[in-house]
Amino acid sequence: MASNKNMKAKPYYHQQNTNAAASGGGGGGYSSESSNGGSNSPSPPPSPRRHASISHSRRRLRTKSFSFFRRDSFALTVSFIFRRNLRYLVLLCLLYVSGLIMCVGPFAGLVGHTPVPGSVYRSHEIFGKLWDQIQFDNSSAIDLSSVWKYKRLKVQKPCLNSTVGRYFGIEKVAVAGLLNAILVIPRFEFNSVWKDPRVIRIAPFANRLAMNVPPHIQLLRCMANYKALRFSDPISTLAEKLVKRMIEKSSGTGGKYVSIHLRFEEDMVAFSCCLYDGGKAEKLEMDMFREKWWKGKFKRKDRVILPGLNRINGKCPLTPLEVGMMLRGMGFDNNTSIYLASGKIYQAERHLASLLKMFPLVYTKESLATPDELAPFEGYSSRLAALDYTVCLFSEVFVTTHGGNFPHFLMGHRRFLFDGHSKTINPDKRKLVLLFQDMNISWVTFKDQMEIMLSENDRKGIIVPRVRKINRKTSIYTYPLPECRCLQQSHNTTLQLTQPAR
Question: Tell me, what is an example of a GO biological process annotation in this record (predicted)?
Fold first, then answer.
């Protein structure tokens, strides 16, 4: 019986192991007969497959490990290559900077390479080449009354409150709240630059209030800038006289004139670090001026002066000659009256000669006013600038040549007065320097480019920035619309704005 039991049991265990092997269970996969060393036992079955989830998990683990290994190897390889080639990268950068200095810097004349277009001042050579064509250009001159063709649709917008008195009461509280103050008192200081002890300076508030403030604060700015602030009586009285005299001098063009804010004073030329046609003597003079007024600021080791690059980037003040050629190219003829707003021009006799050949009717505050009238203003550049500001404000065309607060405020004021149009020529100096260095350019080609530039300034003159709620990125003093629109009055011509001289 025992043997029968054993004989029956063997297939049972063998079937169990076979099933186990087939089902992927654990164990060696051999029958009980195999373990007893039987000679007639069947050959062992193939090794069982591991469970799918375990196999996939281990496979993913190996894949991740291999991926991490590849990433680390790649990072180590890149790091090794970078460290090994770092000196070559530094050398390449140094070679690039050296090449740039040689091309547009002071060493450009020592090497045989052609200078980068726009990097060298050659306007005087272009003028000499084209002067005959400029002088005998018989094409029709531009009419000052029709310079500006773009017009904004007049949309009257009421102010927020019906009574100005109540509005000011609210705004005083609003500004005090912004400043976390109950009363704001301006502090009067002596200014070493202006040399005027009566200049107003609000410290430390000046130039610290952001442009993106609530609309009612913006309207307060509009009222302060265009309604409340006024020049003192001595300034406004003489300024009105200058405007009236300028209109009389412009009788040939219907009383309309062009004003130019020319920034070609000695300090501006020196600060710009630009080179013109004065050669080594000019460079030495400018170096001495910079050292006198700014000490070692321009000689620091971290300061690299590249006059050619400054010119290419439009950072050099336009010369009187360049401004004159630009205006003649735009169509203004030699009968155009020009008011020149400027300080003391650098080497005035030499640099103004070409401008006077193109435009004989050039006037300044010194030529319009008597010495006695100007005597109270001498030595006070802020008062003299106020005179220039007023005469430029009422010109039919205003030309800015080098940026700054003066033209930015003036453009905004003109937009406020003239139905949203700045009536301003703001030249593209990066384009101009390329034209002024092209010795093969003809007068016809130059004129075509200037007419395009004038048309572009006409279009940009009426631009109103998009203001969404309080998100304003541009200055409200340069672009007063739309916030200041409710304060505007309808003035389509500059002549209606002038008051009789007192």
Answer: fucose metabolic process
Nearest to residue 396, comparing CAs of 141, 147, 154, 142? 147
Q: Are 250 and 332 in contact (CB under 8 A)?
A: no
Integer Cα distance of 4 and 2 in angstroms: 5
pLDDT in tens, 382-429: 999 999 999 999 999 999 999 888 999 999 999 999 988 999 999 999
Q: Which residues of 316-344 are buried (b: 16+ CB within 10 A; e: fewer)?
A: bbbbbbbbbbbbbbbbbebebbbbbbbbe
| Pair (257, 144) in one structural domain | yes
Longest alpha-carbon distance in the chain? 149
Give the range of the structural domain holding residue 79, as residue numbers without chain letter.
53-104
pLDDT value at residue 225:
86
d(CA 1, CA 307): 117
- Cα pseudo-dihedral 115, 121, 124, 126, rounded to 10: 40
Q: Name the burial class of residue 132, with classes exposed (0-12), middle (13-18) and buried (19+) by CB atoms within 10 angstroms of its CB.
A: exposed
- Beta-sheet strands, E only, within 272-385: 338-341, 362-363
Q: Which residues contact 133 (CB under 8 A, 6 or more apart)?
A: 442, 443
SS3 for 27-61, per residue? CCCCCHHHHCCCCCCCCCCCCCCCCHHHHHHHHHH
**What residue type is 324 in one-letter code?**
G
User: Which residue from 357, 348, 353 is spatially nearest to 328, judged by alpha carbons?
Assistant: 357
Query: What one-letter code names the amino acid at 17?
Result: N
Q: Is residue 85 part of a domain?
A: yes
Query: Which pLDDT score, from 0 to 100, does residue 10 have?
Result: 45
Q: Which two tokens stand for residue 325?
A: 């050629």
167 and 82 both lie in a single domain = no
161: number of Cβ within 10 Å: 15
Name residues whose C-beta falls within 8 Å of residue 25's C-beta, 6 or more positions apart in sequence: 19, 48
Q: What is the number of structural domains in the chain?
A: 2
